[in-house]
Amino acid sequence: MKKTILALLSVSFIVSCNPKNTSADQETNQVEATQVEKKEDKQIMGAPKDFEITLLEGYFLKNDVTLQEGINTMVFNTQKEFDSYFGIGKTMDNTISPINFDTERVAGVLISPTDIKMDFDVKSAKRIGTGLQVVYDINKGEKQSFMASPIYLFKIPKNNALQSIEFVHNNDHNTITLPPVK
What we know:
It contains three helices and eleven strands, in the order ααββββαβββββββ.
């Protein structure tokens, strides 16, 4: 009998030491779980598929455009937005890449003015779920006698299947959410 009472006291002591799970605690746990699910929804998910980048040629950054210092990543959804940043640089031996803003957007990496020659090297471009991930390097060359703003522009489809683009350079990730197509 003493052993039974001692066992019951031990169990009741252990139960009383455990924190009580109140309804407020349960609500907090549900909120935290919901936040985690929402964060997971925003992650790029799905099997990666190679994405072919179509480089735009024949455009230059207008002199009256002010960029933030360093690397800038942007997406242009309309002809008006694009024209406010870029002009056509037609020469005798180049071609101007056509853009149809009804079906395409323009994404790009723009660098603030520098006297160092820079080239872009796209390591990979992959469609992952509803996102596009572009991993690139910037190769620095010789000092030039003039200042220029290196740009790398490419077309992406304009549809609701593509909802974001993530630019990755030296483990620096910059994601741009694309507006829905109307």
